[in-house]
Every structure is written in structure tokens, then in C-alpha cells.
Amino acid sequence: MTGFTAENTNGFHAGEDGDAGEKTAGEVIKCKAAVVWGSGEAFKIEEIEVEPPQRLEVRLRILFTSICHTDLNAWQGENKLQQIFPRVLGHEAAGVVESVGEAVEELKAGDRVVPVFTGECGYCAACRSEKTNLCVGYAVDPMRSVMRADGRVRFFWVGPDGERRPVYHFLNTSTFAEYTVIDSACVVKVPADAPLSRMCLLSCGISTGLGAAWNTANVEEGSKVAIFGLGAVGLAVAEGARLRGAANIIGVDINPNKFQKGREMGITDFINPTDYTKPLHEVIRELTKGGVDYSFECSGNLEVLREAFLSTHPGWGLTVVLGVHPSPKLLPLHPMELFERKIVAAVFGDFKAKSQLPELISKCISGEIKINLDGFISHELPFSEINQAFQLLAEGKALRCLLKL
């Protein structure tokens, strides 16, 4: 991932002197957004009004956004408690700051940024601690649909009758819109020469997988790893394990078409569960002569989670939960089983977004860390084709579909 050059940002140049941002700062902006009006309904490209940012908020011009399985789950309405409509989904993106609200000091109009779904205020006890990346005030909250500053939305749709109807937010970000308003704690500044079309991948899936391998599990050279579910997060785990020098990286998925891409990311062995009649953990224990050191559950399936847990080596095996599980569900484990193996979960790969993500990006740009970001983008489509992009992901045909606004 070297040799990057700054991209054309669709003629938006609020960057250098702030004049373009000043033209709209403080005003309501009318723009296009992909609005979902009900669970599983097709997205509609609507004109919405986006209000100015309030205290400690930032308004962004989104230039690139991609689709994550979390967006797919929310769109399909798997969690009844999240079914709040109409809504602007999306949380993996990159763009440019259009304007900032009161008391925002670290960002200005024109800064190139990525939004992150779990924020970092930098001041609370959690942000000051090395034990967690979950900020007290701005940690991810999938149930939140309004802004923290005043409990209101910043998006509105004006109907034919002139009624101004609120459109709700999603995962602190709502990136399926040309403009969005986000808490400044959830906005990370990136270098001016960072390619935004690739940086958007680091705002969720790739950072989650890499961080799970590096921060949560701390995979060592020569270790054995099993990854259950080879979507973007699972393949990012493989990339992280490869970069750490893992000796065996086993990819588990029912779609054999994913193995070719898996090899590019460092997977050494591929297991299709449908090829076996005995429990998958037994297959992996035999293959690895006792079990893997680390397993990563990236599917959001409880049966898969149990197999991932039991596939690790007794005594020191660690399972990291990364899949998004529908609520309410309980762990399929007996407490006594925890005497032999450990299980943990990670949000955003245990990265502290604002303080640690910039360093990762800088090392990627310099070539110190060679992450195959290009390999994660399977499709590139215009924003207007967002429904096709969701269909590709739902059918298992897309890894990451990049939408250009």
C-alpha cells in the first residue's frame, strides 16, 4: 500500500482556505441521501435537509462509503429494537469536513477525515485507561437514533404537503448521505495525502479485524489461528495474523469461492463445514494436533461461535467474538468450559479511534505496514446503485462494495 496520491474530492475544496465551507457554514444544506423507510424496503434516493452542527459536532461531506454486514443486518431488521424509520444507515466512509460546531478545536473545514462508529472524547476515565477503547460518552450505541447534544436529529425530509419529517441517525455516523452530522469524538483526521477511497475501509471492518488479531488476541509469530466467516472482517483478521507471522491460518466458510481471496490475505488452509459429518472443532483439533491458539468468530451465528470456542487448544486457547449477533441471544457455553479456554469480544479491534487510528494510517502510507486494502474492494459503484450493492452483499457476492458520492 505505497505510492498513494491525493484524490480528486469531487471539486470540493473547503480544504485549503475554508472558503467553500464558509459559504454553507451555519446554513441548512439540501442534499441526496439513501433513506430506508421500513425494514427490508428498498433504499430511496431522497432529497433531505441537513442542519448545521451543534456544540461538539461536525458536518461532513461524504465522498466514499462502503457497505458492512452491520448495515445489512440493520436494513433487514434482525434486531427489533433497532427498527426506527425513516433512517439513514451507513457507518464506513471517508470525506471532508464542511463545517464544525461550537467548541470543536481539533478539526476545521477542509480536513480529510473518516467517521468512526465508536468515539473517543479523550477525557473520560475510559479514554484515559489502557484497558478499554469504549468511551463513556461516545461508545457505539446501536439503539441511539438522535444526536447527543440535544436529543434531536439533524436530518429532515420535506413531504409533498410541506411537512418537515425527521429522519433518524445510525451508529453515530449515518454515511449514506452526501452530508452528515457527527459528534466530533467520532471523527478522525487523516493525512492530506491519504487516499479516501481506501481510508473508508479503516473506519470499520478492516480496523476491526486487524485490531482483533493485534490488540485483542496479540497473535504471535508461529501461532495457529482459525477464522470462522470470511467476510471483510474475517479476511482482515487473516491479514493481521499474516503480518504477525502466524504459522497456520485456517479459514472456515461455507462458500468455497472465498478461498481464493483468502489465500491473498494469508490463509493457509480452508475448511468448508458442509464437507464434513463430524463436528467442526474435531476437524480443526485433528488438523492442528490439539487445537488452535486463537479462533475468531466473525459470522454472528451461535452454533458457529461454539465450534470456534471448542476448536481452540485446552489450557490457553482464546476465542475472540467479532460477529454481530441478533438480540436477545445467550452464549452457548457452560461456565465449567471456561476453565479450559477463554472467550472475549472486541469492538473496533480494541483500537482507540482518534488517538491510535492515525498512527496506523501513517504507517500504511509510509509502507511500514503493508495492508492489502485494494484486495478488500470487490466492487465499485455509484451511490445511486446502493440497492444493487446491498443485493451483492446479501448474496455473498461482494466483499466490500465502494460507493462514490
UniProtKB/TrEMBL annotation:
Single GO MF annotation: S-(hydroxymethyl)glutathione dehydrogenase [NAD(P)+] activity
The GO cellular component terms are: cytosol
Limits of the Alcohol dehydrogenase-like C-terminal domain: 232-361
Q: Which InterPro entries match?
A: ADH-like_C, ADH-like_N, ADH_Zn_CS, GroES-like_sf, NAD(P)-bd_dom_sf
| GO terms of biological process kind | formaldehyde catabolic process
Where is each Alcohol dehydrogenase-like N-terminal domain found? 57-191
Which Pfam families does this one have? Answer: ADH_N, ADH_zinc_N
| Position of the signal peptide | none
What cofactor is this protein dependent on? Zn(2+)
Which UniProt keywords are listed?
A: Metal-binding, NAD, Oxidoreductase, Zinc
What SUPFAM superfamilies does the record point to? GroES-like, NAD(P)-binding Rossmann-fold domains
Can you state which reaction this protein catalyses? a primary alcohol + NAD(+) = an aldehyde + NADH + H(+); a secondary alcohol + NAD(+) = a ketone + NADH + H(+)
Q: Does the keyword NAD apply?
A: yes
- Family in the record: Belongs to the zinc-containing alcohol dehydrogenase family. Class-III subfamily.
Oligomer and partners: Homodimer.
Name the record gives this protein: Alcohol dehydrogenase
Q: What is the lineage of its organism?
A: Eukaryota, Viridiplantae, Streptophyta, Embryophyta, Tracheophyta
